[in-house]
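Recall that a protein's primary structure is simply its ordered list of amino acids. Everything else, from secondary elements to tertiary packing, is in principle encoded there. The following example makes that idea concrete.
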Amino acid sequence: MTAAPTSPAPTSEGGRVRLRGNPAARRAVGLLVLAVVLAVACVFLGRWQWHRHVARDAAIRLVEQNYEAGPVPLAELLPDAGATLDPSDVWRQATVTGTYDADAAVLLRNRPVDGQPGFHVLVPLVQDDGTVLVVDRGWVAWDRDASGEVDVPQPPPSEVEVTVHLRPDEPASTREAPAGQVQAVNVAQVLAAGGVTAPSYAAYGGAVAEAPAAATTLGALPAPSTDPGSHLSYAFQWWTFAAGSLVAFTWLARRELLEGAAPGGSSGPAGPVEPVGPAEGPGTGTSAGGATDRDPGRPAAQPGRARRRRPSDEETEDALIDSQLG
């Protein structure tokens, strides 16, 4: 009796599993590699969102700490011309006395307030020593074509004491703007657009109050947002995806190995071959070449069980004749 071929199984050499000729093992390893790649990518995306959450949380704490704090003289926070605002002093209130240079007023474009498009009005405030602080006095709604031809209320004409929220100088914008307008609150660009060459600070102020007040006030500047956003939830979602990918693909890899190891599994090129024994007794229908002429519609004989052969038509006819003659 010919032995049935067996499916190739992975063998171990020096603690390493041989995958040659084992498609199930190769598929399982591929699934595990994919799981690791996806998990690592999700972990890094979660860390990115976590860092954004940390930065946003720090900005919110700074606003809550400084925005409502009592005002101090400007010289305590910006001692001289060219001074840079300390990051811990952003949104601090300061008082400064000077005279507005109304002829050098500049409009800031593309800064809507509460969804309403408009222009912020930036005016240099000249102090007694000639140093200039750029003040964002407020905003006005734009006209229909946003051309900048808006009616801007004049600032107080005489000396005024202004309370401002200090903000750091913004990076210079590379976008062009019409004459008398800017795309960012960059002090150098604002003063250049207004034709002012006086010394200034590397910071500007958002107006809170003016004394004496102007005859016509501008729209108040909005308070900074303290909404933390969704960065923290996004971080945990990415990390959940990382753990889920490891669990799911590991389960799939295990199923591939189990199905490949099962009898009749897909680990080999074909299932077990049923052995065919030699003919025993007459009328077996075995040809000289070893092939059988059994009915192709009948199932193959099971290993270890005697095969029952259906009698041929000639044998059935002989049995009937014998019974009648007997």
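Strands lie at 12-13, 16-17, 72-73, 93-100, 106-108, 118-126, 132-141, 160-168, 181-182, 200-211. The two ends are 42 Å apart (CA to CA).
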